[in-house]
Amino acid sequence: MSDFNDLIIFIQKEINKSLKRLPIPDKPSYLYDPIRYSLKGGGKRLRPILVHLMGRAFNIDPDELMKIALSIELLHNFTLVHDDIMDKDTMRHGQKTIHTKWDTSSAILAGDGIYTIAQIILNTLSGIDNAVSSYFNKTTLEICEGQALDKKFENEPIITEKAYLNMIEKKTGALLSAAAALPVIYNGESQSFINYCDSFGRYLGNGFQIQDDLLEITSDEKTMGKSLESDIYKCKKTIMVIKAHNRYPQKWDKLISNSSKNNIKNNIHSFFDETGIIKETKSSAEFYFNSSREAIKKLKIHNKNELLQFVDLIEKRTY
Amino acid sequence: MSDFNDLIIFIQKEINKSLKRLPIPDKPSYLYDPIRYSLKGGGKRLRPILVHLMGRAFNIDPDELMKIALSIELLHNFTLVHDDIMDKDTMRHGQKTIHTKWDTSSAILAGDGIYTIAQIILNTLSGIDNAVSSYFNKTTLEICEGQALDKKFENEPIITEKAYLNMIEKKTGALLSAAAALPVIYNGESQSFINYCDSFGRYLGNGFQIQDDLLEITSDEKTMGKSLESDIYKCKKTIMVIKAHNRYPQKWDKLISNSSKNNIKNNIHSFFDETGIIKETKSSAEFYFNSSREAIKKLKIHNKNELLQFVDLIEKRTY
Q1: Does the pLDDT at position A223 exceed 60?
Q2: In angstroms, rounded to a whole number, what is the distance separating the alpha carbons of residues B141 and A164?
Q3: Does residue A94 come out as left (phi exceeding 0), alpha (psi in the -120 to 50 range) or beta?
Q4: For a pLDDT cut of 70, what percent of chain A falls above it?
Q5: Where are the domains of chain A?
Q6: Buried b / exposed e across A151-174, counting CB within 10 Å, b at 16+?
Q7: Chain B residues within 8 A of A132 when measuring between CB atoms
């Protein structure tokens, strides 16, 4: 595990160095200051790390691989910048969101710019055909669909667990799929190989998001780098909120209306605990992580172990 | 001219048919309803028409050409949807803007989706290398820079005419350049050929925008399909406002503060007229249109005449 950890830290540093080295112009500062600020922000770089791990399976030139990795990280960044406006989130990775530090117009434009730069980087890959860019853009559209469902859910009284899982697969899973699949597509591998990577990413994404929902209720603000409970106050539907609301409608509504800002987190935590919702959600996350491991096992690559350890890393994260 | 008009109407109809036929999914409606609404809206389709005219020079398969044309129109559409949020514009082509009919979140997401669909369409072009997509995305980044400058100008007391012309070249000219250059790049023509197309588009764009500024003050709301004077009330800097403000700062400020909603347009019109600003602006537009004609004359293509007539069409438009 230690060698693997060293590898991850090495890749992460390389990604951060490459992000810093991106030739983002100085002017117009209205566009590029927020973009630079956004790229300087924290982030675990899990998606570009996955790109590098998958690319190692085919010994792809790390410089070329970095182009895919950066374009995936920038795509991720772009969606966060725009989502933060839509969700009115004020903090991200421990720093003010762009629309909070500047304004909505700056954040819209910064997001547009980041996504465009992602594509410009992707287009510097040598000898690619349409397949890479095509998959990249289909991924973005799916992420937009996921965000659309998420926004729609805010105003719906009942969300089924199935609908929620479909939403997070689009919003989170699609991008992890792309991180896994793009190096494979770039290397000209078969459709069935691409499909396994796609499944792997989707399972991993669902595991990741369900675990994120769990961490939101079990972790603290400082560790998460964003204001907790904010999602709950805004009636953001997590898998646990959906289970609670669908199964115990009266009890849940009563709990929410009788709680104050100071005790709501504890009250919710106890409720999820007593009803077995935490346990059930943990085992649901476990199911998705194990399914992603099964998908990896089907891949004919020499560094399966690295990908399996990557799943462990995500499963064991505490923030 | 009649044959040419028939050709333009034919191309315009084909573009509208193709836009209608785009396989935009039904769900999630939160994402796709605003996108469908936006694409149904009016618009002169000047940019995709230019794509077709330029493609005719090389006898490019019209179906392939249509992919470039649609991606250019969608790129244009995407920038309008996001610009309308930033500029708080409520009407566009005679219908409510997306953020007015729905909300800001829907409009941000619709814009993102439209731009992504534009790229998905571009990637269905057969046998393209990175050059087409690369130019397409560099164009978008330049348009973002133009919009950033435009937003920045809102809060600056003095804008030079040179800075304004640089801004509109990015905001308007870059896309017309792309409309002219992409078929040429797709056909694998030389860099010098691409450069002439680029210059042609930039001159045409500046002519187009300066004329737009003129029409804003000489046309009426019904013809323009958007609320006039709104730009003036919001201190939007047009080339004429810049000239007036820079040369007659006191007189201009006095005129604005002494005018009511009912007489401001007439007052401004008279002021621009008396000071010779209208005349000067007209001759500036003429200069750019003539420069775009000069660029066309340098192109070795059989349908120069169509492109020259296209410039005439734009120069003579009344809305």
Answers
A1: no
A2: 35
A3: left
A4: 95
A5: 2-315
A6: bbbeeeeebeeeebbbbbbbbbbb
A7: none
Tokens of A259: 């709680």
For residue B256, how far is the Cα from the chain centroid?
28
Task: Name every chain A residue with its beta carbon within 8 A of the beta carbon of B31.
Answer: 144-145, 147-148
Q: Which residues of chain A are within 8 Å of residue B149 when distances are taken between CB atoms?
A: 28, 30
Strand partners, A96: A91
Assign A221 a pLDDT band (cuts: 50, 70, 90): low
On whether the CB atoms of residues B107 and A85 are closer than 8 A, the answer is no
Residue A125, chain B, CB below 8 Å: the answer is: yes
Residues with Cβ within 8 Å of residue B156, at least 6 apart in sequence: none
Contact A137 B147 (CB under 8 A): no
Q: Which fold has domain B2-315?
A: Farnesyl Diphosphate Synthase (1.10.600)
**pLDDT higher than threshold 90 for residue A1:** no
How many cross-chain Cβ pairs, A to B, lie less than 8 Å apart?
Answer: 119
Q: Which among B30, B133, B137 has the least Cβ separation from residue A148?
A: B30
Q: What are the residue ranges in chain B where pLDDT is below 50?
A: 224-225, 228
Residue appearing with tokens 């595990």? A1
Query: pLDDT tens across A90-132, in order?
Result: 999 899 999 999 999 999 999 999 999 999 999 999 877 799 9
User: DSSP per residue over B204-260, as a string?
Assistant: HHHHHHHHHHHHHHHS-HHHHTS-SSHHHHTT---HHHHHHHHH-HHHHHHHHHH--
pLDDT of residue A232 exceeding 80, the answer is no
Residue A43 main-chain phi, psi, to 5 deg: 130, 145
Query: A-contacting residues of B 223-262, CB under 8 Å?
Result: none
Cβ-nearest to B86 among A29, A108, A124: A108
**Residue A172 and residue A209 in contact, taking contact as beta carbons nearer than 8 Å:** yes
| Of B182, B219, B179, residue with least CA distance to B202 | B179
Residue B47 contacts residue B76 (beta carbons within 8 Å): yes
Write out pLDDT tens, residues B93-136.
899 999 999 999 999 999 999 999 999 999 999 877 799 999 99
